Amino acid sequence: MAEHLHGSTLSASGAPHPIPFLTLEQKAAFVFVLLLFIFLGLLIVRCFRILLDPYSSMPSSTWTDYMEKDTFDYRIA
């Protein structure tokens, strides 16, 4: 019974052979899920950095050029 709990079987010579803990498909799925969790963690960190300082991630040319071009358009009319 102790052999069954440790996950090994006896061969013809009497030496224990370990039973594989995970199959190849389970290992591949485990690695894929682990990579997804790492990607999720990176996205969460990036989102919190944007929430804490939103203007550092935005290029300044997107709003300063707009203000410089259209500043006098509404004042003339």
Report on the architecture of this protein.
The protein is mainly alpha-helical. It is built from 5 helices and 2 strands; from the N terminus they run αββαααα. Strands 1-2 form a two-stranded antiparallel ribbon. It is a single-pass membrane protein. The chain crosses the membrane at residues 28-48.
Entry summary:
With 77 residues, the chain is mainly α. It has helices at residues 2-6, 24-52, 54-57, 61-69, 73-76, and strands at residues 8-10, 16-18.
Separation, N- and C-terminal Cα atoms: 92 Å
Estimated structural class? mainly alpha
Shape: rod-shaped
Give the total of beta strands.
2
Based on CA atoms alone, the radius of gyration comes out at 30 Å
Strand content bin = 5-15%
Q: What is the string of SSEs from the N terminus onward?
A: HEEHHHH
State the low-pLDDT regions, or none.
Answer: none
Membrane topology: Single-pass membrane protein
InterPro entries: Cortexin
Pfam families: Cortexin
Keywords: Membrane, Transmembrane, Transmembrane helix
Fold blueprint:
Elements: H1 2-6, E1 8-10, E2 16-18, H2 24-52, H3 54-57, H4 61-69, H5 73-76
Antiparallel strand pairs: 1-2
